[in-house]
Write a structure and sequence with these properties.
Blueprint lengths: L8 E11 L8 E6 L5 E7 L4 E8 L6 E5 L24 H4 L7 E4 L20 E6 L6 E7 L5 H6 L3 E7 L1 H6 L8 E13 L5 E9 L10 E4 L2 E2 L2 E6 L1 E8 L6 E7 L2 E2 L4 E6 L2 E8 L5 E3 L4 E7 L8 E6 L29 E11 L26 E9 L7 E9 L5 H7 L10 E8 L2 E8 L12 E5 L2 E9 L16 E7 L5 E5 L4 E8 L1 E3 L12 E4 L22 E4 L3 E7 L6 E7 L2 H4 L4 E6 L10
Parallel strand pairs: 1-4, 3-9, 5-11, 10-15, 14-23, 24-30, 28-34
Antiparallel strand pairs: 1-2, 4-7, 6-8, 8-9, 10-11, 10-12, 12-13, 15-21, 16-17, 16-20, 16-22, 18-19, 18-21, 22-23, 24-25, 25-29, 26-27, 28-29, 30-36, 31-35, 31-37, 32-36, 33-34, 37-38
Bound molecules: copper (II) ion.
Length: 613
């Protein structure tokens, strides 16, 4: 769907329809944009605004069976998420009652707040909204997808996602392939299906979780709506626009030929927000893409004989925790415990028709520079911890905690907020909680140690300097605490206190990574409450930590989604430039975002800040 050909005015209808994920599979009911999976790819030109009328013509019920299986593994020890069928679970009646509320977010779009797809501004079935996209942004692969509060994971899984390509003159100067046959988008997702009484696949989509894993990691890899497709390619160089559009799964893609990885056949030229400064090779282990991350790749098939075949494998375990896997073993990456029963993603089959690749310039993008660290020392810093809260009788909750430094004279004020004002400072002792040879100081009432009465703080120790923080917001609906001023650089620090990698996404402008460093931390038992957390964090390596905490070359571009691995702090340089209003940032694992790893921020013009209440 090329916007220019329709004078920049597009109509996209969300519809219930049928889709065949594989030629051997029965038709699946889906919710799709224009009824297709994925939705139509929308192509726009930089600087040419586009208006899209998003029509909600969906009909319920949700075309996905949702279940949580009673056991993590079946009688033979196979994790239930690795196989089709409900695995003893019952279909969730609440999701079956959905009538089809929707809201559309253009991921990566520099979009005014009213058109950004706020998660609570729903379009009911039978309603429509016209969203206006200025498209004053560099060429990049964006994507549009559903973003409804609490149920994004089901709406996207049902089929509501599609690609959106912004084009510009810089790409044409470089001579990059544009459109078919040599530019091909690859939208990678994973899906599972229900089975009937005889164990036969019915084609009905299945979102299955289990008591130990609250994210769905379906076994079948789907590329552009097809399971394990084969793509015929000429003896030529191709440009692949790759997006991980899965709910939760991270992919580490390894191109394989004749039993060996062919990592060097791939040149990466772009990331989330378009061209990198120069062409680079992908990491030697393979190309990592967490949910919502994109890569612009050139793959040269021009030296291969007709009939040659290459396979793209995924070697990333799920849930992904940053751990490595050698590319040479990609063929053998199948790992049931790692919820990766089939590492195959797709195949390329070379057919006759030779074209010599165009030489690629050494310089690609010239419109951005790396962050200048000395200029970031004095800018506003925001600290966010990622935590997993264990709950009795229901799945754990992955959530964010926004922190603010505790001023020395602020403690008594803070205790009042905790409903403990009458105890005052006199009733408190300073006791030390030991963690190895280090210690964390926690204020507790005289007498028995009880976590109910602890003043919750997070201490962060960096090079001997300790800063104490308190939680200022936890849930999505808590008070907004982030009011970034337009054009002001900020440093956002994400500290991961969980065992999984989280792809953190900021709406609106792209950002750049500043640093990725190891941390170690101690969370006292029971210290993660509904809105609180006590933890001691040190910016040094945990002795049990095996990750390298490196920044890959392909992460040094303009990003909108960044992986934060376990035992890690990631710092990003954030600057919002143009649009004021209420936006969201969140983990892009949809099961996390829905429960409750998402928070608002409000961008403001500087001159209005003094008038904010
Ligand atoms: Cu997450």
């Amino acid at each position: 769907m090329i916007a220019r050909e329709q004078k920049g005015r597009l109509v996209v209808s969300m519809r219930l329809s049928k889709h065949q994920f594989h030629r051997d599979l029965r038709l699946s009911s889906v919710w799709g944009y224009d009824g297709t999976v994925p939705g139509p790819t929308i192509e726009v030109e930089r600087g040419h605004p586009v208006a899209v009328e998003w029509r909600n013509e969906l009909k319920g019920p949700l075309p996905v069976v949702v279940t949580s299986a009673p056991q993590h593994a079946d009688a033979s020890g196979v994790p239930v998420q690795c196989v089709p069928g409900l695995s003893g679970g019952t279909a969730d009646p609440k999701t079956a009652a959905f009538s089809g509320h929707a809201i559309v977010h253009l991921h990566g779009g520099l979009t005014p707040a009213v058109y950004d797809g706020w998660a609570e501004n729903l379009i009911a079935p039978g309603q429509s909204l016209v969203f206006y996209y200025p498209m004053d942004q560099r060429a990049a692969l964006l994507w549009y997808h559903d973003h409804v509060m609490g149920v994004t994971k089901f709406d996207v899984y049902a089929g509501l996602s599609g690609l959106w390509i912004v084009r510009d003159e810089r790409e044409r100067e470089i001579g990059l392939p544009e459109g078919p046959p040599y530019e091909i988008p690859l939208l990678i997702q994973d899906r599972n299906f229900e089975t009937d009484d005889k164990g036969q696949l019915t084609g009905r989509l299945l979102h299955k979780t289990d008591p130990e894993v609250m994210e769905a990691f379906p076994p079948f890899t789907v590329v552009n709506g097809k399971i394990w497709p084969v793509l015929e390619v000429h003896q030529a160089q191709y440009r692949f626009r790759v997006l991980n559009g899965s709910n939760a799964r991270t992919y580490r893609l390894v191109l394989f030929k004749d039993g060996r990885p062919e990592i060097n056949r791939i040149i990466q030229i772009g990331t989330d927000h378009g061209l990198l400064g120069s062409p680079i090779s992908v990491p030697s282990d393979g190309l990592l893409l967490a949910s919502a991350e994109r890569a612009d790749l050139l793959i040269d098939f021009s030296d291969l004989p007709a009939g040659g075949e290459l396979t793209l494998f995924n070697t990333a375990r799920a849930p992904f925790d940053g751990s490595r896997f050698p590319a040479t073993n990609a063929e053998y990456a199948a790992d049931l415990d790692g919820l990766l029963p089939y590492p195959q993603v797709m195949r390329f089959r070379v057919v006759a028709g030779r074209t010599t690749p165009q030489p690629l310039p050494k310089v690609l993008a010239t419109d951005y520079n790396p962050p200048i660290l000395r200029e970031l020392v004095a800018v506003p810093h925001r600290v966010i911890v990622l935590v997993e809260r264990e709950l009795e009788g229901e799945p754990n909750m992955l959530t964010l905690r926004e922190l603010a430094p505790v001023a020395e004279n602020e403690d008594s004020e803070h205790m009042k907020m905790q409903g403990m004002g009458e105890m005052g400072h006199q009733g408190m002792d300073m006791k030390q909680m030991h963690m190895g040879e280090r210690s964390m100081q926690v204020e507790i009432p005289k007498g028995e140690i009880s976590h109910d009465y602890r003043v919750p703080t997070v201490t962060v120790t960096d090079a001997g300097q300790t800063t104490r923080y308190r939680v200022v917001a936890s849930h999505f609906e808590d008070t907004t605490t982030f009011f970034p001023v337009l054009d002001q650089h900020e440093v956002w620090q994400f500290l991961n206190l969980t065992g999984d990698t989280h792809p953190i996404h900021l709406h609106l402008d792209p950002f750049q990574i500043i640093s990725r460093r190891p941390i170690r931390y101690k969370i006292p038992k029971g210290a993660i409450g509904d809105v609180t957390i006590s933890a001691a964090v040190e910016l040094e390596r945990d002795p049990n930590d095996t990750l390298d905490h490196q920044i890959d070359d392909n992460e040094r571009g303009l990003k909108d989604t960044i992986r934060v691995n376990p035992n890690e702090i990631v710092e990003i340089d954030v600057r919002f430039t143009k649009y004021c209003g209420r936006y969201m940032y969140h983990c892009h694992i949809l099961e996390h975002e829905d429960r409750d790893m998402m928070r608002p921020f409000v961008t403001m013009p500087r001159e209005l800040m003094p008038f904010m209440a």
